[in-house]
Amino acid sequence: MKKILLLSLPLLLSARIEWLNSYTEAIKKAQTANRPILVFIESEYCSWCKKMKREVFTKTEIQRIINGNFIPLKLDKDRSSYPKELSVKLVPTTIFLTPEGKKFTRSVLGYWEPKSYGSFLSDAIRRYKKFSSKVQ
Amino acid sequence: MKKIALLFITIVSIGYSYSAKGMVTYKKLCYSCHGPAFKGAAMMESHEWRSLFANKATGLKALHENSQKAIERLNSSYFNRRAQALENFLINNARDKGIVRGCDGLNCG
Prior knowledge:
The complex is a heterodimer. Chain A contains five helices and four strands; from the N terminus they run ααβααβββα. By secondary structure, chain A is an alpha+beta fold. The longest helix of chain A is centred in the last third of the chain and has 22 residues, at 114-135. Chain A starts with a helix and ends with a helix. Chain B is an all-alpha fold. Helix content of chain B is 72%, strand content 0%. Chain B contains six helices and no strands. Chain B starts with a helix and ends in a 17-residue tail after the last helix. The chains are: A alpha+beta, B mainly alpha. The interface between A and B is medium-sized, with 24 and 15 residues.
């Protein structure tokens, strides 16, 4: 049984991204899990956001990084309710927040292909580790 | 007419190779830690790249002081020879300069 669980761990980690849609719920979950939040802000009219969802968030490597390190939150720029600190001029924008809801690194503006986006995610993970070790 | 066309092609190709030189330098020195070239350039704004490269890249070296591998690369003669080309590439494709593939409400670029 243990072996099966261990073997299926990589598959579980790379499963599709379970996006949350509520900011408050994401904060609660992040505080419980002690993980940073990845906020993906999109809009209905935005073709680049659709391309990102189709070509980036479907990649196993990206799913593995997000599921293993972040609490994923997807917000609609015009319809969702969120603090005004998260207001953006451009979509898609990816914002990284601490479990307390503070930005700890620069956001990712626009569409990026999987390799570059993955590199931005790795930078954010590194930055968060540094940031949280300083706070403690 | 032919001469003008030839001159134009020469200028364009020199310009192209100049920016390509910066990109090649990035790939050799920075890619392994910072990922693809345009992503790497988009990590900073153009004025930040300018200040990091000022005074023989003092700021850039200070920023990498915890990485021995990076410091070795930044002190190499290869970096010294190509620092200007790398700086130009990074500035031209910085966070505030490069093309952002997104929508701002009016149009999707």
